[in-house]
Design goal:
- Chain B: InterPro entries: AAA+_ATPase, ABC_transp_ATP-bind, ABC_transporter-like_ATP-bd, ABC_transporter-like_CS, Oligopep_ABC_C, P-loop_NTPase.
- Chain B: Belongs to the ABC transporter superfamily.
- Chain B: Keywords: ATP-binding, Nucleotide-binding, Transport.
- Chain B: One of its GO terms (molecular function) is ATP binding.
- Chain B: This is ABC transporter ATP-binding protein.
- The complex is a heterotrimer of chains A (320), B (310) and C (301).
- Chain A is an all-alpha fold and 320 residues long.
- Chain A has 13 helices and two strands; from the N terminus they run H-H-H-E-E-H-H-H-H-H-H-H-H-H-H.
- In chain A, strand 1 and strand 2 form a beta hairpin.
- Chain A starts with a helix and ends in a 7-residue tail after the last helix.
- Chain B has a single domain, classed as P-loop containing nucleotide triphosphate hydrolases (Rossmann fold), CATH 3.40.50.300.
- Chain B is of the alpha/beta class.
- Helices cover 37% and strands 24% of the residues of chain B.
- In chain B, the strands form two sheets. Chain B has an eight-stranded mixed sheet, with helices on both faces.
- In chain B, a hairpin with a 2-residue loop joins strand 9 and strand 10.
- Chain C is built from 15 helices and no strands.
- In chain C, helix 2 packs across helix 15, helix 3 packs across helix 15 and helix 10 crosses helix 11.
- Chain C is elongated and about 75 Å long.
- The chains are: A mainly alpha (320), B alpha/beta (310), C mainly alpha (301).
- Chains in contact: A-B, A-C, B-C.
- At the A-C interface, helix 1, helix 5, helix 6, helix 11 and helix 12 of A face helix 6, helix 7, helix 12, helix 14 and helix 15 of C.
C-alpha cells in the first residue's frame, strides 16, 4: 500500500507543476499585467517602464514564473484591480461560503445515495427499484443549471419556502444563533439542488455494484451455509459495495467546482464560483488566475485523496 | 544449408516492481535454444504450457523481442526486427492456435485472405479475387466462401482459412503454433493431413509447435522437447519415440493414450513405473532451480540434457 | 468463370456482417421509447434547420423596444424577451445552434479521443504510460473554468472555433474508453496475424482494430452528444457561449437569472428549459438503447 501511495504522490507533483505552468501561460495571454489598474493612466510611459523594471515585469519568462509561483506558494496572488485589494484577502472572504456549500452538498449526496443505492440494488426490479432507476435516468439527462432554476422557481418563488439569493439575511450579527441559522437556510436549496443531480452516478454505481455482488459465488456460498439474509447483506455485500463510495468525494471535487459556478450564479450566492464569473466579466485577471490555480490544485489533491482512500478500502486497484 | 537456424535464442521478459516500476528480475521464457530446420522438413517443438515453445515461434517471426542469440533464415541474419526486410517477412508466415480469434470477425473471407496480397503484391481487384479463389480451392473451401464472414464457418473451416492466408504469399517457412489444439479431435486429423498435402505440393517447411506428442509423431521429422525455456531432448522422430533418454521425455511418451483397450492395464502399470522413476530421479536430471542441464550428443542426431556426472 | 464470378457477386447481399451496426439498428427499432426518441430528434433537427432557412435571423435578434417582455399572443407565439425579440424564433435558431455545436464538439472530440485512445492502447508500454498521464491531467482540470477563460480571451469566435475550444477539454472520456478496448483487441490473434502478414501498425489500427470497436464508438458518441448539448447550453447560460446575436438554448435560459423574468415571465425561459431537457432525454434514450444492444446480456431479444 505504501508503494502505491508514494507512486501516486510522485504523479501528483508534476501534475501541480504542469497546472501552474498552464495557468501561467494563460495569464500571459490575458491583457494587462500587475500594473494595470494600479497606476494612474496619466503616468508617462517612461515612468511606467521604470516601475515595470522594478517589479520584474521585463524579466525573462522563467524568472517571472518563479517569482509568480513563489508568491502563490506564500499566498500572494497580487492585487485585484477591481476591488483594489490583495487577491488573497478577496478569496478569503468568499472561500468559507463555497466551502460550506460544497460540504453540505457532499453530505446531502451521501445521505441520498446510500439508502437509494442499497434499496435499489437489494430489491432490484421491484417497483421501488424502478422508481429509483427512473430518478437516476432523469437525473443524468437533466443539466444542473436547469434543475437549479426550476427548484428556485418552485421552492424559492412560487412557494417562498427558501430565500432566493445571498448567503445570509442582512442585519444579523456574525456568531449569533440567528446568523448561523440564516446561513444554513440560504445553503439548503442550492446544496439540495446540486446534490440531487450530482448524486445519481453514485446511486447507479451502488446499485450495479450490489446487483453484481449478489450473484457472486461467495455470496451464494454464504447463503448456502445458512447465513441469514440480513447477515449476508451487512457482512458481505455492503462491505464490498458501500466502502468504495467513501472514496468518491475527492473525485466529486471537480464536479463540485463546475457545480458551484452554476449554483452560485443562479442563487446569487457570494462564493468563489460567483467571484470567478464576475472577475472574468470584469477582466480582473489576477483574481481569475488565482482561482483557476486554486480550483485546479483542489481537484488534483481531491483525486489524490480519493485514490489513496480507495487503495486502502479496495485492494484490487493496488495491483496496478 | 539449413533453411532456418536458431542459435542460443533467449527471450526474457522483465518483471516490473518497486516504486519507480524498475525491472527487478526476468522471466526466462526461452533460455538458450539451438536448432536448425532443413528445407521441406517439419520440425516439432513439444512442451507443456509455459515451456516457451510458442514464445520461440513468435520470437522467430518477430512478434516477441529477442533478448539474445541469433536467428538465421536462408543465410541471412534476421535476429533484429530491423533486419526483417519485407522480402524475408513474406517468406515466413504463421498459423495461429485459435481459429476464432485469429480471423478478424468484421472482415469477409476475401479481405482476410487478400490482406497479405494487398501488402506485398499490386494486383487488380480481379486478379486478387482470382488468387483468393485458387487459395480457397487449395484448402478445400467453396468459392462462395469469399463473401462470408468467419462466424459462418466451423472451427476446422476457419483454420483452413487461416492456412490459406498463411500460404497466400508462397512462403518458405510456416510457423504453426498449435494449429489443431483448438479443434475437435475428429477435425484434427483432417486439418493435419491437409497440411501435409500442401507441404508436399508447395515444398513448405514447418516449425510445428504442439503440446500433443501424438500429433507431433504424425507430422514431424525432427522433434525437440522443451521444459521451462530449455531443451530437454532433441532428435529424429525415431530417436525420441524409440529411444527416449531423458526422464521427462519418457514420462511424456508414457502419457500418450494407448489405442488398444486390451493393453490398458499394462499401460497403466507402465505409466506408474515411469512416474515413480521420474519422481526418484528428478533431482538428478534437473539442477537446483529445476531447470534442464546443457545438451549432450548421444548420436549424430540425438541430443539429451543429461546431468553432468562426475 | 465469368458467369460463376457474377453468380458469386450476386450473393454479396445475402450474407450479412455480424457487425454491430445491424444489431444496433435492430435493437433500436425494437425499443419503442428509443425509436420514438430517434424520430423526435430527426423531426426536431429537420424542423429547426428547415425553418431557420426561411427565418431571418437578423430580424429575430433585432431589439424592438416597443414589444418588451410581451406574454404569448397571436403575434408572438411564445411572447418576447427583454429586448422585444421573438422568443419562438430565438428558440428555433437557438436549438439549431445548440445542436450544431453539440454535433461538432461530439465529432471533434470523438476523432481526437478515438485516435488518442487507439494509439495509446495499441502501442502500449511507455507510449501508453505517457499518454495516459497526459490524459489524467486533462481529466482533472476544471473544465468549465478553463473554457470560460479561453472564451473570454479569444477576441472573436464563431460556432466552429467555439466548438474547438470545448473540444480541447472534452476528448478524454472517449479516449480512455477506446484505449482500454484497444488494449484488449490488440492482444487478440487477428491483430498479431496482421502483423505477420506484413500490415503496418497504422493499417492494423485503422483497418483491423477500429472496425471491431465501432459499436462502442457509436454508443459513446451518442451519449456524449447529450452531454455536449447540456454543456453548451450551460456555457451560454453563464454568458460564455456564443454572443447574444447568435442565440443558443442557454441564452434564453440566461434571461432567467433576472429574478423578475424567472418569477413572472415563464414564457421566456420555460420552453427552452423543456426543449433542452427533451433533447437530452431523447439522445440519451437512443444512446442507452444502443448501449444495451452492444451488451449481449442486456439485449431485449
Amino acid at each position: 500500500m505504501w508503494k502505491f501511495i508514494v507512486r501516486r504522490l510522485l504523479v501528483t507533483f508534476p501534475q501541480i507543476v504542469l497546472l501552474s505552468i498552464l495557468v501561467f501561460v494563460m495569464a500571459q495571454f490575458m491583457p494587462g499585467d500587475a500594473l494595470t489598474g494600479q497606476v494612474d493612466p496619466n503616468v508617462s510611459p517612461e515612468i511606467k517602464q521604470q516601475i515595470r523594471e522594478r517589479l520584474g515585469l521585463n524579466n525573462p519568462w522563467y524568472v517571472q514564473y518563479t517569482d509568480w509561483i513563489g508568491g502563490a506558494v506564500t499566498g500572494d496572488f497580487g492585487q485585484s484591480f477591481r476591488f483594489k485589494m490583495p487577491v488573497t484577502d478577496l478569496i478569503e472572504q468568499r472561500i468559507y461560503n463555497t466551502f460550506w456549500l460544497s460540504l453540505v452538498t457532499l453530505i446531502f449526496m451521501y445521505i441520498i445515495a446510500v439508502p437509494l443505492g442499497i434499496i435499489s440494488g437489494r430489491y432490484n426490479d421491484t417497483w421501488l427499484d424502478q422508481t429509483i432507476t427512473g430518478y437516476t435516468y432523469l437525473g443524468f439527462a437533466t443539466p444542473l443549471f436547469i434543475f437549479a432554476l426550476v427548484m428556485l422557481w418552485i421552492f424559492g418563488y412560487q412557494f417562498g419556502w427558501f430565500p432566493t439569493s445571498g448567503s445570509v439575511a442582512p442585519g444579523l450579527s456574525p456568531g449569533s444563533w440567528d446568523y448561523v441559522w440564516s446561513k444554513f437556510q440560504h445553503l439548503l436549496l442550492p446544496a439540495l439542488s446540486m446534490a440531487l443531480i450530482g448524486t445519481v452516478s453514485t446511486v447507479q454505481y451502488l446499485r450495479s455494484e450490489i446487483v453484481d455482488t449478489k450473484q457472486r459465488d461467495f455470496i451464494i456460498t454464504a447463503r448456502a451455509k445458512g447465513a441469514s439474509e440480513s447477515r449476508v447483506y451487512n457482512r458481505h455485500i455492503l462491505r464490498n459495495s458501500v466502502l468504495p463510495i467513501a472514496a468518491f468525494f475527492g473525485w466529486e471535487i471537480t464536479g463540485l467546482i463546475s457545480g458551484t459556478i452554476f449554483i452560485e450564479r443562479i442563487f446569487g450566492y457570494p462564493g468563489m464560483g460567483a467571484l470567478f464569473l464576475e472577475s472574468v466579466l470584469m477582466r480582473d485577471y489576477s483574481v481569475v488566475t488565482a482561482l483557476v490555480l486554486l480550483f485546479g490544485v483542489a481537484a488534483i489533491l481531491g483525486a489524490l485523496l480519493s485514490d489513496i482512500i480507495l487503495s486502502i478500502v479496495d485492494p484490487r486497484i493496488r495491483i496496478k | 544449408m539449413a533453411l532456418l537456424e536458431v542459435r542460443d535464442l533467449k527471450v526474457h521478459f522483465p518483471i516490473k516492481g518497486g516504486i519507480l516500476n524498475r525491472t527487478v528480475g526476468h522471466i526466462k521464457a526461452v533460455d538458450g535454444v539451438n536448432f536448425s530446420i532443413e528445407q521441406g522438413k517439419t520440425y516439432g517443438l513439444v512442451g507443456e504450457s509455459g515451456s516457451g515453445k510458442s514464445t520461440t515461434g513468435k520470437a522467430i517471426i518477430g512478434l516477441e523481442q529477442i533478448t539474445e542469440g541469433q536467428v538465421i533464415f536462408n543465410g541471412e541474419d534476421i535476429t533484429s526486427i530491423k533486419n526483417k526486410t519485407k522480402d524475408i517477412r513474406k517468406d515466413i508466415q504463421m498459423i495461429f492456435q485459435d481459429p476464432y480469434s485469429s480471423l478478424n470477425p468484421r472482415k469477409r473471407v476475401l479481405d482476410i485472405i487478400a490482406e497479405p496480397l494487398r501488402n506485398y503484391e499490386k494486383l487488380t481487384k480481379n486478379e486478387e479475387k482470382q488468387r483468393v479463389y485458387e487459395l480457397l480451392e487449395l484448402v478445400g473451401l467453396t468459392p462462395e466462401s469469399i463473401w462470408k464472414f468467419p462466424h459462418q464457418f466451423s472451427g476446422g473451416q476457419r483454420q483452413r482459412i487461416g492456412v490459406a492466408r498463411a500460404i497466400a504469399l508462397k512462403p518458405k517457412l510456416i510457423i504453426a503454433d498449435e494449429p489443431v489444439s483448438a479443434l475437435d479431435v475428429s477435425v484434427q486429423a483432417q486439418v493435419l493431413n491437409f497440411m501435409q498435402d500442401i507441404q508436399k505440393e508447395l515444398g513448405l517447411t514447418y516449425l510445428f509447435i504442439s503440446h500433443d506428442l501424438g500429433v507431433v509423431k504424425h507430422m514431424c521429422d525432427e522433434i525437440a522437447i522443451m521444459y521451462r525455456g530449455r531443451y530437454v531432448e532433441q532428435g529424429t522422430k525415431d530417436d525420441i519415440f524409440e529411444n527416449p533418454q531423458h526422464i521427462y521425455t519418457k514420462r511424456l511418451i508414457a502419457a500418450i493414450p494407448d489405442v488398444n483397450p486390451r493393453n490398458r492395464d499394462k499401460h497403466y502399470v507402465f505409466r506408474q513405473e515411469v512416474k515413480k522413476e521420474y519422481e526418484q530421479a528428478y533431482d538428478e536430471y534437473f539442477d537446483a532451480e529445476g531447470l534442464a542441464f546443457g545438451l549432450k550428443d548421444i548420436s549424430d542426431t540425438h541430443r539429451v540434457a543429461l546431468p553432468e556426472r562426475g | 468463370m465469368e458467369a460463376k464470378d457474377m453468380n458469386v457477386d450476386s450473393q454479396v447481399l445475402k450474407s450479412e456482417s455480424p457487425s454491430g451496426l445491424r444489431i444496433l439498428w435492430r435493437e433500436l427499432v425494437k425499443d419503442k421509447l428509443a425509436l420514438f426518441s430517434l424520430i423526435f430528434l430527426i423531426l426536431i433537427t429537420a424542423f429547426v434547420f428547415g425553418i431557420s432557412w426561411i427565418l431571418n435571423q437578423d430580424e429575430i435578434v433585432r431589439v424592438d423596444l416597443f414589444a418588451i417582455n410581451e406574454p404569448p399572443s397571436d403575434e408572438f407565439i411564445l411572447g418576447t424577451d427583454y429586448g422585444g425579440r421573438d422568443v419562438f424564433g430565438q428558440l428555433i435558431i437557438g436549438t439549431r445552434n445548440s445542436l450544431t455545436i453539440g454535433f461538432l464538439v461530439t465529432l471533434f472530440s470523438g476523432i481526437i479521443g478515438i485516435v488518442f485512445g487507439v494509439v495509446s492502447g495499441y502501442f502500449g508500454g511507455h507510449i501508453d504510460n505517457i499518454m495516459m498521464r497526459i490524459l489524467d491531467f486533462f481529466f482533472i482540470l476544471p473544465f468549465i473554468m478553463l473554457v470560460i477563460v479561453f472564451v473570454s480571451l479569444v477576441p472573436s469566435y464563431n460556432t466552429f472555433t467555439f466548438s474547438l475550444i470545448m473540444t480541447l477539454f472534452s476528448w478524454m472520456g472517449i479516449a480512455r474508453l477506446i484505449r482500454s478496448k484497444a488494449l484488449q483487441e490488440k492482444e487478440l490473434d487477428y491483430a498479431k496475424a496482421s502483423k505477420t502478414l506484413g500490415s503496418s501498425d497504422i493499417s492494423i489500427i485503422f483497418k483491423q482494430v477500429l472496425p471491431n470497436i465501432t459499436s462502442l464508438i457509436i454508443v459513446t458518441m451518442t451519449l456524449n452528444l447529450a452531454a455536449n448539448i447540456g454543456l453548451e447550453s450551460g456555457l451560454s447560460f453563464l454568458g460564455f457561449g456564443l454572443p447574444e446575436n447568435t442565440p443558443s438554448l442557454g441564452t434564453l435560459l440566461s434571461y432567467a437569472t433576472n429574478p423578475q423574468t424567472l418569477e413572472h415571465r415563464w414564457w421566456i425561459w420555460m420552453p427552452a428549459a423543456l426543449l433542452i431537457l427533451l433533447l437530452m432525454l431523447a439522445v440519451r434514450n437512443v444512446g442507452e438503447a444502443l448501449r444495451r444492444a452492444t451488451d449481449a446480456r442486456q439485449r431485449r431479444g
